[in-house]
Amino acid sequence: MNNIEVSIIIIAYNEQETIGTCIKSLIEVFNSIEESYEIILIDSGSSDDTIKIAQKYPIKIFKYSNGEKNASISRYFGLNKSFGKYILHVDGDIVIDKNWIVSALNIIKNNENLGAIGGYLSEKYNDGSFSEYRFPVNRKYVNEDSISGLALFRKDAIIEAGNWNINLRSGEEVDLSLRIMYEAGYDIWLIPQRMGIHYTEKLGSVKNFYNHLKSNRLIATGILFRLSRFKLKYLKFHLKRSDEIVIQFPIMFAYFSSVFIYLPFILIVLIFDILYSYSKRGNIKQAIIMFFTTKLYAMGTLYGFLCPIKHKKIGKVYKLN
User: Fold this and answer.
1) Which of 24, 59, 195, 253 could form a disulfide with 119 if both were Cys (CB 3.0 to 4.6 A apart)?
2) CA 178 – CA 188 distance, rounded (Å)
3) What is the pTM of this model?
């Protein structure tokens, strides 16, 4: 197995609508570029036809059961089952773009200090609409502290950084990225190419918010702040990344202070709050959603910061084929 160059690790849970397209796109891309590879699917106990569909393809399938379910655990197990020098982590609801993987492989092979490389994702929503995320203009590469659920890693960088934190239910990509950068000493780059299409719910939809609530994303920022142990580099990144949440603390303090000091001041705070939300979204509907959700995220952040992480019960993986 030591002749495998790239291990592709797909994590999935009830992805019957997209898993076939995801696997097929990966096989077509890697066969066309003649790169030695393996595909490993880690299924977290899907109750739909995800495994049945995946079994139609020549890949390794492992089923994870009897333990806490989260993306970090699945990626952890996938890495331990892999043989490649490079790891391509993919979510089961993503269809990869050939041009990006060709560029990413070429760049990471020619830059020994590069620990991971990403790009940008387009999103296709359940209502049929489409969002094309753009890359900063006139920037060939951007040094970043964080990658998404789709990225190409140097396997040694993940291992030297301590592997995925299996106790995190959300924010695991950010946590690993920071450790790759600041503890293992590797760079992380984004390149101005679309990595693929992510099939998901629209940001701000009820289902999207419910999924965030269920996956502990509301408290993830607070947990990451605490894990930073007040290291300046970590804190600067979290403050920059979570500016919309962080600003809610002085806003909410102003609301509460107004009740005890000068009640009409609430109107001034409210106007500022609404204008800030609108300036960030540029759309009244999205601004209203942001107005409420950022406060919930702020309270979740405080909870995540103050409450210790519960160590997860780790189950077992069973090879299916």
Assistant:
1) 195
2) 9
3) 0.80
pLDDT for residue 213: 58
Cα separation values, 22 from 26, 42, 193, 299, Å: 6, 14, 19, 36
Domains of the chain by residue range: 6-200, 223-306
Alpha helices in 183-231 (DSSP H): 206-214, 217-227
Residue 226: what residue type? Answer: R
Q: Are 65 and 316 in contact (CB under 8 A)?
A: yes
More confident residue, 300 or 271: 271
Q: List Cβ<8 Å contacts ≥24 apart for 304-311.
A: 304/218, 304/219, 304/220, 304/221, 304/222, 304/223, 304/224, 304/225, 304/226, 305/222, 305/223, 305/225, 305/226, 306/222, 307/219, 309/167, 309/168, 309/223, 310/167, 311/167
Tokens read off for 12: 């999935």
3-state secondary structure of 129: coil
Give the separation between CA 153 and CA 319, rounded to whole angstroms. Answer: 24
Ramachandran angles phi, psi of 90, nearest 5°:
-135, 140
List phi, psi (to 5°) of 105.
-65, -45
**Which of 156-160, 250-254, 287-291: highest mean pLDDT?**
156-160
Domain 6-200 has CATH 3.90.550.10: yes
Classify 114 as helix, strand or coil. strand
The overall average pLDDT reported for the chain is: 81
